[in-house]
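go over this record:
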Amino acid sequence: MRDAGEPPLAGVSVELLQNSKVVETVKTGKDGVYTFAGIYVDEYALRVDESSLPETTGEWMDTSFDAGTPAGSGGPHDFGFRNQIPGLSLQVEGNAPDTVAAGELVTWNVTLTNSGNVDLSMIDVVSELQESGDYEYVVTPDPGAMNHLAPGASVQLSATSPLTQEVIDAGEATNPVTASGYSQVPDRINTVEEEGVVTLAVTPRLDLSVGGALDNDADTTRPGDKVTVEIVISNTGNQTITGAEITSPTDGMSDITIDGWPGDEKVLLPGQSVTGTATVTVTQDDIDAGKISVDAVTSGTSPKGSAVTQDGSTTVDLVSAPTIDLAMTSELDPAGDAILYSLSSTNTGNQTLEDVALSHSLASELTVAWPGKDGMLAPGETATVELRVPFTDAMRGTDVLATALSEGTTRLGVAVNATASTSNTVPAVFVPDEKTVPQVKPAPELVEGPQGLLAVTGAVGAVGVGVLGSMLLLAGAILALRKRRQDA
C-alpha cells in the first residue's frame, strides 16, 4: 500500500517468511502494491530483497513501519525505502573591472545549492585563488548557512581577486572552486567542482614617435651633413610585448642603437618604453627637396602570438639658400671692329637650379657651354658664354653699355637671378692695334739700263719716291688719329 504523495517502488521483491524460511516471493506492481494469495492464517514475517531496489547514486534507507494491522492477520502492511541522494550544484560567475590592468579587481559570485534530498552540514567552499592571500569570501545572506544546508537551499558567497600581468597576458581570469558538504545517509563528504571564467578586454599595442634634428648649426645645409634621429617605442596596451624591435626604410640611415631595455631584451611590459637613436646622412636630393623625411617601424608579438606593429615618421627641415652669381667681362677686339664679352654664371647656393637661362642686351641668342645637362646647374657648377658683338654705326664714338641676366628655379619653385653690366668706349674711327697692322717694305729703286729697268741699291727712283710718299701720308694719318684719341 502506498500513502498519498509517496512515490511507488515497482518491481521490488517482497518475501514471505515462516520460521525463517521463504514461503513465497512476489514483486510490487507499478503502483508499488504487492499481494500474497492462497496462504493459511499463521504467523509470518515480511522481508524486502534490497538488491531488487532500483539503482541509486545515493543510498536506500529503510522507512518501513507497521500500518496497525497485526502480522499474520492477512491485513495490509506498508514498507518503504527512501532513496537518499545527496547533491551539490555550484555556479561561479565573475565580472571584469572597467580597466584591465595589473592590480585591478575581478569580482566573483559563487552560488552553492543543495541539489539533493538530504540535509548537508559542514559546508566548505575553497578557491585556488585563496592561495594568493588576496581572496576572501563574504557569505550572504546568512553565514550560518555554512553549517547546515537543507535540500533546495542555497548559500551565496562573493570575493575579489586582483589581476596579475600573467592573467592579463592569458586574456582571461579563471577561478577554480571546490565545494563540499557532509551527509549522514549516505555517510560521506559530497563534493562538487566548477571553474569560473572571465574574458578580459585585452589590447596589445605599441606606439612610436620619431624626432630628428640637424647636427649642422651653419647657415646652409650641405651634402654629408648629419641628422640625428630619436625613435621612442612605448607599450601603450595592457599586455606584454615580446620581440620588440625598431626598423627603418629610410635611405642613408645608420644602424639603430637601443639605449637600454627596461627589463629583458626586446620585452616591454605595459607602460614601458625604450629609445633608439640613429643618424641619417643628408644628400643633395634632400637639400633640393628642402627637407629630409625619416620613417620608422616598430613591431613585436602579443602573448597570443599575433603581430603588433606601428609606424611613424618625422620631417626635418633643411636650411635652403638658393643663389646664383653672374660675372661679365668685355674688351675691344684687337683684330677687328667688335666687342668681346665673356659671361660666367655660377650656382653659389646649396640647391640644384633648373631652367637656368642667360641673356645679353646686345645679342638675341647665346651659345652656352653647360657643365652637364642643358639648363641645369648643381651647386658649385658654372655655365659660360663667349660673345662677339660687331660695331654698329650707332656705337661709334660712344660708350656702349651692355647688361646680362642669369636666372633659374629650384625644384621647389623658388626663382633666383643675377645681373652684370660692362661699358666700353667705341672709337668714331676704328684704328687697329699696331701689332696687327701689316708692315710695308720699301720697293727697290729702278733705273733704265741697256736691258731695261734695273734695281739700283742706294738710289731713289721715281717709283721709290711714290711709294715712300704714300707711306709717309699713311703714317701721318695714324699719328693724327692717335692725337685725337689722346685729346678725347
